[in-house]
Amino acid sequence: MSGRTADASRSITDQVTEVSLRRVGLYAVLVGLLAFYLSPIEAGLVTSLKTTAAFNETAPYVPPGLDGLTLAKWAEAFSLLQAGLVNSLILTIPATILSATLGSLAAYGLTKVDWKGQVGVYVLFIAGIFIPYQAVLVPLSEFWGQMFPLYEIGAPVWAAVPFLQEYHGHLLALIVTHTAYGVPICTLLFRSYYKDISDEIVEAARLDGASVASIYRKVILPLSVPMFAVTLIYQFTQVWNDLLFALIIIPSGSGSAAPVTLALVQLGSGVVTDFTIKMAGALVTALPTIIVYVLFGEQFAEGVAA
């Protein structure tokens, strides 16, 4: 009897030891992954808070002493990137809203409305997702620079409307481009979401006499909030961080129309590169996307889960 008790006790002890080792291994892996992903951010943040002398005397990931600590680089970076931040907001907000709205409308038409040719149109949307940026750079440059130069065509408008300048034509071209490029992926996301909405709801609204537009506005749109959160956050991040389209569509590559990503390229550049202000500028540029994720993270998670 006592032998059985001792064996059971050893078995429980072995199981506890095994579980403890697994947990220790799990925590070790998690800590390693946390350090791997956060170390670049830590190095960038620490570098942005150093004076030039402290940066030259210490390793990138080592915090500065009190005599080497400064916020001047952040203030200088924000001042130099201020115009670029405004330009990025001007082009990112409308491009994001238009992409999500048009994608929602297209997906509704492809899932809840019966008409001929749906499959062909859907295939075109899917094909649009797989066109790489590099394949359209030259055609885009020719279109906006030679065939349809908005900054020249809209000259009377820029002159007549207060607060509008000629360089806003370049931003308008970027808005149209990002909207066109974002609609296919938004359509795909909304279509996957709408396929799970019960057809009985739509059919009941149709039997009550609701039109196609009324069904979308009163039935589909209220149910689309989680997916709108997903597409808005995704598109905002994509458009905000874009550099290629801005380089191609804005002729000079910088100047008054430059979004923040273009302005960031030139920040701190010179005979000697100032890495402290470059790091401060990179973090200032990333702040809007971080704020968007923090504010709408819960809705984003709900949309992804849906």
Radius of gyration: 27 Å
User: Helical residue percent?
Assistant: over 70%
User: N-to-C terminal Cα separation, in Å?
Assistant: 56 Å
How many β-strand stretches?
0
| Oligomeric state of the chains in view | single chain
Low-confidence blocks of residues: none
- Total helices: the number is 14
Q: Helices and strands in order, then pairings?
A:
Elements: H1 2-48, H2 52-57, H3 72-111, H4 118-129, H5 133-147, H6 150-153, H7 155-160, H8 168-194, H9 199-207, H10 212-223, H11 225-240, H12 244-249, H13 260-266, H14 275-305
Would you give an account of this structure?
- The protein is mainly alpha-helical and 306 residues long.
- It is 78% helix and 0% strand.
- It has 14 helices and no strands.
- The protein has helices at residues 2-48, 52-57, 72-111, 118-129, 133-147, 150-153, 155-160, 168-194, 199-207, 212-223, 225-240, 244-249, 260-266, 275-305.
- Helix 3 crosses helix 8 (168-194), helix 8 (168-194) runs antiparallel to helix 11 and helix 9 runs antiparallel to helix 10.
- It starts with a helix and ends with a helix.
- The mean pLDDT is 87.
- Belongs to the binding-protein-dependent transport system permease family.
- InterPro entries: MetI-like (IPR000515), MetI-like_sf (IPR035906).
